[in-house]
Every structure is written in C-alpha cells, then in structure tokens.
Write a structure and sequence with these properties.
- Helix 1 (40-57) packs parallel to helix 7 (206-214).
- The chain folds into two domains: 2-249 and 456-478, Aldehyde Dehydrogenase, Chain A, domain 1; 254-438, Aldehyde Dehydrogenase, Chain A, domain 2.
- It has helices at 40-57, 62-78, 80-91, 95-118, 152-165, 180-192, 206-214, 228-238, 263-275, 292-307, 327-342, 379-382, 398-406, 421-430, 463-470; strands at 2-3, 6-8, 11-13, 20-25, 30-36, 124-126, 132-139, 142-146, 169-173, 199-201, 221-225, 244-248, 254-257, 287-291, 346-349, 369-372, 389-395, 410-411, 413-417, 435-438, 453-454, 457-458, 471-478.
- Strand 9 (169-173), helix 6 and strand 10 form a beta-alpha-beta unit.
- The longest helix has 24 residues, at 95-118.
- The protein is globular, with a radius of gyration of 23 Å.
- Helix content is 40%, strand content 21%.
- The strands form six sheets. The protein has a seven-stranded mixed beta sheet, with helices on both faces.
- It holds the Pfam family Aldedh.
- InterPro entries: Ald_DH/histidinol_DH (IPR016161), Ald_DH_C (IPR016163), Ald_DH_CS_CYS (IPR016160), Ald_DH_CS_GLU (IPR029510), Ald_DH_N (IPR016162), Aldehyde_DH_dom (IPR015590).
- One of its GO terms (molecular function) is aldehyde dehydrogenase [NAD(P)+] activity.
- This is Aldehyde dehydrogenase (NAD(P)(+)) ALD5.
C-alpha cells in the first residue's frame, strides 16, 4: 500500500505522532494509500523551513527562478501519463480528463508564470518639479496554500507557480482526499533543483493541519480554494490577524441559452459544462436557463445525449463520467436528487446510483441527471451540489434571464449563448459574477483576473493579479 510522507525543507519527513488517514480509490471504494495526519508540529517545522528559504529565494534573480520553474514543467511533462493515471485513480475522474486537462494545465501553470516574471515591467514617473517616483515590488513571505480535491494538481500548481515566481516560499496543504500527485510533485522539485524549503508539502485534515497553517503568526498570506462554509471559517481566523487572503469558493453557475444561439454548439457545450469531471468543477453550468421558444427543442436534443454519456471505469477511453470523490459525497448528491423529487421536480434522465459489475461494484458512481419542472428558487436549483446534476428552466425575456441568473448566493461564473453580439455583451455585463463566457465554456487566459463575487469568494488571481497578491508594493519618491 502506498504510504505518503510530508515534504519539509527539501526532504521527505516522518510524522511525530505516526498517525495516517486512509485514502480511497473512488472507482472501487477501497483503501489504496495512507496520508499523513499531520498536526501543528509538522506545520511549525514546515513554516520554519519556508522562512529560512525565503531569505535566499526572495533575493534570487527572476531569471534563475524562471529557469527552475521551466525545468519543473519539463520534468512534469515527461511524466504526464504517470501523473494522469495517478490523478484518475486518486480522484475518480476519467483518465481522458486527467490527460487532457489536469496535467497539461499543471504544466502550463509553471511555464506561464515563469515567462510572466521574465517580462514584468515596473513603471517610474517623474513629477514636474523633478521628483522621481517608482514602485518597489517585494515578495511578502511564507504563503499558506490550501487546495481542493476536484482538480488536485491543476489547482495546487495554480497556487504554487505564482507564489514561487514572485519570490515567496510556501507551505502547501492539499486535500486529504487527493494528495498523491502533490506527493509525486515533490520529487520533481528535487530533480529540478528547487532550493530546500521553497515549497513544503504538509498533508492532513483541514481542522487540524489546515487550521494550524491558517492561524500561524508567521504566515502572512493565505490562498484557499474550496467550499464556502470552510472559507467563512478561514476568513474568521485570518481577519483579526490582518492576513492577506484570497478565497475561491463555491459556485452555482447559470448557463443562459437564447433562441438565437448556435443551437448544436450550445447543446453540446452545455453537456460538457454540466458533466465534465462528474460535475465536480466549481465552474460547471448546473443551472440551465433556456428561452421558452426553444425550451422543448433543447430538452429533446439535450436529454438523449446526456443518456448516452458512459459512466464507468475511469481508465476506459469510452467513459465520460467517472466516480465521485467519496461515499459521503455520493450520498449527498443522491440526497439532492431525492429532494428534487420532493420539490416537484421531474427526473428526465439519471437520478440513481450507477451500479457496475466486477471490481467497480463498490465505486461511487452516479448517473448524469437532468431535472425539470422545478422552481428556480428551490434548494436544488440554488445550492451547490457539485455532482453530475443539472436543472433546466424556461425563461421568456432577456430581463427575466438576468434576474434568474443573479438570484443566487453565489457569483463565480456564467455562460451566455446568443448570436446577437449586442445582446450577448449586454447580458454578460449585467450578470453578477467574476467570469462570463459568451458562446463557449472553460476557455481560460491566465493573464486575466479570476475569482468570484458574493459567496463565491474574495480576491483575484491570474497574471499580474497573482503577482499583486504574493507581493507588497512600496512607493518610493526620490528628490533631485
């Protein structure tokens, strides 16, 4: 059985209390690895190592930092198949998705931010009276990076890459459900020549290791991606300590389809937006609003195609929907489907646990589920389910679509489908979210800001926005 170790000060380290957490392969429902159940002791050691490394790493030239990051990306790329297989086994996602999305994006995260720091420009201004003003950008210190289980390496590297590019060091705590690729990444850090202590990886549970990291007095900034409830607790801890915080939290994203859309593209992309990664993406379009004139036509096309999605062995190339992360999460998703029935919803397809044969008989599979005839105000249409479940609602006017989309506690993303450019832009600018796609979904430019509004979080990451988060800017004025 695979047994992970923390990575502290450039070395794999043993636990003080020798406690471990069982880690399950979601596709078979069985333990296959053990994760360190780290405590405050391990967090303290990791912070100490990160502090020590910060003194040198923060002064290391950008060109040297970039060179090491490019090496990390190159080594990771050479092991793409190995990492994709490990990610699929650990998270339950399809191997196809891990190969085409998770690991390539993880590689690109390092390459993008390595290139970014090589081309950053600092501006200076000269006042009429001759005074010179410029801004000094300095890395902030040791960052606490907490990443979720849905896109494990993808979102962990989205934090680590800008952090070390900016000259900060870090203590990272991946989700205890999906720690294997983070563990594997540590060996790549050693191979690439990343100095000891720049990245420290501590595995464990949120209330224990995570809380110790968030509350540590020598960790001045925290980047967290995860659930809104946990994000609230984290922010309550950080606020009195005046820590710099970036929170990317939940989403219940609207997908608005107008009658003048490119119909086939809208249908096919809506399926991908709803069920990619088993619906376990914070950006999934789980509230579909369709203009009334094409509502029936949409369902007649959408539902049969959803029924054709293959649920099963994540390693099988034919599989489009893998296993959910845990038995508890599967039961939560199924509970929402039962709630939909109680709220008067019609299950157009799916709605059940998917029972497979052989080694996958105990896996955490749920059929892709489409629900109609339910009020947009019902819990199933308002709360984040984070599974292969979508609700579909009709609307009549543009104003009604905007109101329906905005009537939610979350504000992460939205998709708008219309061939009328003026309408598409008008709607996009009226939606209360951090990111809007028009006639597409999940197209990301790492230069633009990413983040949510309302209960989807605070702060922005990406490009210069990430650099601003991991650095402090000081204005300096020089006399003649």
């Amino acid at each position: 059985m695979l047994k992970l170790s923390n990575f502290i000060g450039g070395e794999f380290a043993s636990l003080e209390e020798n406690l471990y957490i069982d880690n399950y392969d979601p596709s078979i429902g069985k333990v296959y690895a053990q994760i360190p159940d780290s405590s405050e002791h391990e967090i303290n050691l990791a912070v100490e190592a990160a502090q020590k490394a910060f003194h040198t790493w923060s002064k290391t030239p950008c060109s040297t930092r970039a060179q090491i990051m490019y090496r990390i990306a190159d080594i990771l790329e050479s092991k793409l198949d190995e990492f994709a297989m490990a990610e699929s086994k650990d998270q339950g996602k399809t191997l196809e998705f891990a190969k085409n999305v998770d690991i390539p994006r993880s590689i690109y995260n390092f390459r993008y931010f390595a290139g970014h720091i090589l081309h950053m420009e600092e501006k200076a201004t000269v006042m009429d009276n001759g005074y010179l003003n410029y801004v000094q950008r300095s890395p902030l210190g040791v960052a606490g990076l907490i990443s979720p289980w849905n896109l494990p390496l993808y979102l962990l590297t989205w934090k680590i890459a800008p952090c070390i590019a900016a000259g900060c060091t870090c203590v990272a705590k991946p989700s205890e459900f999906t720690s294997v690729t983070a563990y594997m990444l540590c060996d790549i850090f050693k191979q690439a020549g990343l100095p000891e202590g720049v990245v420290n990886m501590v595995f464990g549970k949120g209330p224990k290791a995570g809380q110790a990291l968030v509350s540590h007095p020598k960790v001045p900034l925290i980047s967290f991606t995860g659930g809104t409830v946990t994000g609230k607790k984290l922010n309550e801890t950080c606020a009195p300590l005046f820590k710099k915080v970036s929170l990317e939290l939940g989403g219940k994203n609207a997908n608005i389809i107008f009658e003048d859309c490119d119909f086939e593209k809208a249908v096919d992309t809506s399926i991908r937006a709803a069920f990619s990664n088993q619906g376990e993406i914070c950006l999934c379009g789980s509230r579909i609003f369709v203009q009334k004139s094409i509502y029936k036509k949409f369902l007649e096309s959408f539902v049969p195609k959803v029924r054709q999605l293959v649920v099963g062995d994540p390693r099988d190339p034919k599989t489009k929907v893998g296993a959910l992360i845990s038995k508890q999460h599967m039961e939560k998703v199924l509970g929402y489907i039962e709630l939909a029935k109680q709220e008067g919803g019609v299950i157009e397809c799916g709605g059940e646990r998917k029972q497979l044969d052989g080694e996958f008989s105990d896996g955490y599979f749920v059929e892709p589920t489409v629900i109609t005839n339910i009020k947009p105000s019902c819990r199933v249409a308002q709360e984040e389910i984070f599974g292969p479940v979508v609700t579909v609602h009709p609307f009549e006017t543009e104003e009604e679509a905007i109101d329906l989309a905005n009537n939610n506690q979350y504000g992460l993303s939205c998709s708008v489908w219309s061939e009328n450019g003026k309408r598409a832009r008008r709607v996009a600018e009226s939606i209360q979210v951090g990111y809007v796609w028009v006639n597409c979904w999940m197209v990301r430019d790492l230069r633009v800001p990413f983040g949510g509004v309302k209960q989807s979080g605070i702060g922005r990451e990406g490009g210069e926005y990430s650099m601003n988060f991991f650095t402090e800017q000081k204005s300096i004025c020089l006399a003649n």
